[in-house]
Amino acid sequence: MEEKGQLKRTVIDVTAGLIAGGISRTVTSPLDVIKIRFQVQLEPTTSWALVRRNLSEPSKYTGMFQATRDIFREEGLRGFWRGNVPALLMVMPYTAIQFTVLHKLKTFAAGSSKTAPVASA
After folding, report:
1. Widest CA span of the chain, in angstroms?
2. According to the record, where are the Solcar repeats (predicted)?
3. Is the pLDDT of residue 41 over 80?
């Protein structure tokens, strides 16, 4: 009977981790999109940029608010969630594992082989 309770607790922990990871990644996606746009734009100071760009050409994104405005104007609101699905496929399992292992370690550190009781539905 105890094994069934541990399995149920693990399923709850995995599910909670999946949901928490999905929500947090989706909410922070606009900031990640802006960060990535800055990371991938070529700057005139790099050697590859000298080959590929005219030195007088300014960077496309010069500040966070300007980048936000341009992404919204060019791609609409959906542009801030571009690439979110692949990111979810990485973050959700990671968070589920992290959440489940954290609970198991807390239980182990407390000196109990039993998991916290799960309310019956």
Report:
1. 72
2. 8-108
3. yes
| Cα separation, 85 vs 25, whole angstroms | 10
- Chain position carrying tokens 């489940």: 100
Both tokens of residue 60? 């496309």
- Residue 116 pLDDT class (50, 70, 90 cuts): low
Residue 55: phi and psi, rounded to 5, are -60, -25
User: What span, in angstroms and rounded, lies between the C-alpha atoms of 30 and 36?
Assistant: 10
This prediction has a pTM of: 0.70
Classified as helix, coil or strand, 105 is: helix
Q: How confident is the model at residue 113 (pLDDT cuts 50, 70, 90)?
A: low
The answer to whether the beta carbons of residues 71 and 34 sit under 8 Å apart is yes
Q: Does position 46 have pLDDT exceeding 60, yes or no?
A: no
Q: How many Å separate Cα 9 from the centre of its chain?
A: 24
Tokens of 104: 């198991």
